[in-house]
Specification:
The complex is a heterodimer of chains A (208) and B (322). Chain A has 208 residues and is an all-alpha fold. Chain A has helices at residues 2-12, 25-31, 35-58, 68-90, 92-98, 109-119, 124-154, 175-203; strands spanning 156-157, 160-161. Chain A has a domain at 2-140. Chain A has a two-stranded antiparallel ribbon. The relative contact order of chain A is 0.18. Chain B has a two-stranded antiparallel ribbon. Chains A and B meet through helix 8 of A and helix 5 of B.
Chain lengths: 208, 322
């Protein structure tokens, strides 16, 4: 159980797809304009991740090694299509605002990377928790970026106006704002990590 | 925490003129233009310059304190960034525009890249681009000079871009007005004569070299003359160099030591590149003026230019080809 919990938490902390692994940046930069988009994108990616990890890990002994990548893509594409159709049916507004980035989950590197690096080497239980952790980590990363961008760039959070009269910096909603926000947040997370590791070294008496 | 390995950016051989002396001289050279902007636009100009300079200096001191580096606000580079930023703003921006711009320039463009000497882009211009993209309405509302009640007016280049007027006579201004600064525009760009005086001082003291500004101005002017709005070779050479921020940009911002090429040949490439881009933006782009963007774009090419055009190493013979 402890191992499963570890598989879950590592996706949120050290191996966070957005701030640790720096994977899946296209959707991160493109749809983090508002908190609503970020949650929708994160939920869709988590759904695909958990499902594809489950299937890949359960059929990992049947798939011949040489054709494993095309097989992964077929599995992932199946779930992305399902996800897209569900979204079109039940959340059409979200589907419109996410646009092309929903079908593009097929080529999202987080999902491919987890299938290749984790699910095809581990059991079903561990793979489900890994997918869940990575998905939640990705969603959290997206939400942090989207909150910063939406609050400063549009003066609102999840579509609600925060301070009347506040003139937002429109550039944060645009592409340069996405890159700058992501860069600064990665720097911040690296700073926190380096602080943490120095402290651990200090406790062990390792640093002079 | 002092660094054990000192990694410094080039140039590694230093002359006698230290950073503070050069920076304060450039600020001194900008004083005439600052006085002119106060005469032309009045008290708002003082307020904007004060806020921008104070923000930049305070921000630099704060960041250097927080990161445990030596506080170097006395070298004048932050004050210069603030002054140049204020020069790039319209006179009726609210006070928080230079405030936000100053923080952006120093914290993000300068110190996030490693501080003075390591920044890729000119901090003042990058801040201007940030402000223009964020609050276009504030950044493009210009006040008519010598007007007590802040009447907004378009800059000559804006009128030119709209295409309603093509000549100075139709705009109701003369070359002399452009030269003295009787036109709408940013604080520091309008009074050409004050800028030229400052630039001449810097050229005489050899703090800046003629290569970049002259190639920049000549390229822009010639291209605007050749591809004039009313036929080939019918553009207005003088109008194109006097009407926008070209003089300010070419002499004071395209000659920044950190973000421009080291070799004189490279500086010519830099100037010509800036000139071509300025012309292209003015002629085909969405904005009436392109000086700031052209310098920023060419800033990104500086490492490439420096790689291919290396300064001749002092004391060595000219490299033999083959």
């Amino acid at each position: 159980m402890k191992r499963l919990l570890h598989e879950f938490t590592k996706g949120i902390t050290i191996e966070n797809p957005t701030f640790g692994l720096i994977l899946g940046l296209c959707p991160t930069l493109a749809v983090s304009t508002s908190l609503g988009n970020a949650i929708g994108m994160g939920a869709a990616a988590t759904f695909v991740l958990v499902c594809s990890n489950t299937i890949v890990s359960s059929v990992r002994r049947i798939i011949p090694d040489r054709i494993r990548l095309p097989a992964f893509i077929v599995i992932i594409a199946t779930f992305v299509t399902m996800c897209e159709l569900i979204m079109k049916a039940y959340a059409p507004a979200l589907d419109v605002s996410l646009g092309i980035f929903v079908p593009l989950i097929v080529v999202n590197c987080i999902i491919m990377a987890r299938a290749e690096a984790f699910a095809c080497k581990h059991g079903v239980g561990a793979s489900i928790f890994d997918g869940l952790g990575m998905g939640v980590g990705f969603t959290l990363g997206l939400c942090v970026i989207a909150s910063v961008r939406e609050i400063l760039g549009a003066g609102s959070i999840a579509g609600k106006q925060l301070i009347p009269g506040f003139q937002p910096a429109t550039v944060l909603i645009l592409a340069p704002g996405a890159l700058a926000t992501l860069g600064l947040l990665i720097a911040l997370s690296n700073l926190m990590k380096s602080k943490k590791s120095t402290c651990r070294a200090c406790r062990k008496g390792g640093c002079g | 925490m002092p660094d054990k390995l000192i990694v410094s950016t080039s140039p590694h051989i230093l002359g006698c003129d230290l950073t503070p002396k050069v920076m304060w001289s450039v600020i001194g050279a900008l004083i005439p233009a600052a006085i002119a902007s106060v005469i032309i636009f009045g008290m708002p100009s003082v307020k904007i310059m004060a806020v921008a300079v104070f923000t930049c200096v305070a921000c630099e001191a704060l960041i250097q304190k927080l990161t445990g580096r030596a506080v170097t606000i006395h070298d004048g580079s932050a004050a210069l960034t603030g002054l140049l930023l204020a020069f790039n703003l319209s006179s009726n921006v609210p006070f928080w525009i230079p405030l936000v711009g100053g923080i952006f320039a120093i914290a993000l463009v300068k110190h996030a890249f490693g501080g003075l000497g390591a920044n890729v882009f000119n901090p003042a211009l990058a801040a201007r681009a940030f402000l223009l993209a964020s609050w276009p309405t504030h950044m493009t509302a210009f006040t008519r000079p010598f007007a007590a009640d802040a009447v907004t007016s378009a800059t000559p280049l804006m009128m030119f871009k709209e295409g309603k007027v093509g000549t100075l006579v139709e705009m109701g201004i003369s070359y002399w007005d452009l030269f003295l600064g009787r036109r709408g525009g940013c604080l520091g760009e309008v009074c050409i004569i004050a800028l030229v005086c400052g630039a001449a001082y810097l050229l005489w003291k050899r703090y800046i070299w003629w290569q970049t500004p002259f190639s920049f101005i000549l390229t822009t002017g010639s291209l605007c003359w050749i591809f004039g709005a009313r036929g080939y070779f019918q553009g207005d050479f003088l109008f194109s160099i006097l009407s926008g921020g070209l003089i300010l940009g070419a002499f004071f911002m395209a000659t920044d030591y950190v973000t421009t090429p080291l070799a004189h040949t490279g500086q010519v490439f830099f100037g010509v590149g800036c000139g071509v881009l300025t012309f292209l933006i003015r002629k085909f782009g969405g904005y009436p003026e392109g000086v700031s963007y052209s310098i920023l774009i060419m800033n990104a090419f500086v490492p490439l230019i420096d790689r291919y055009v290396k300064p001749k190493i002092y004391g060595t013979a000219k490299a033999v080809k083959g």
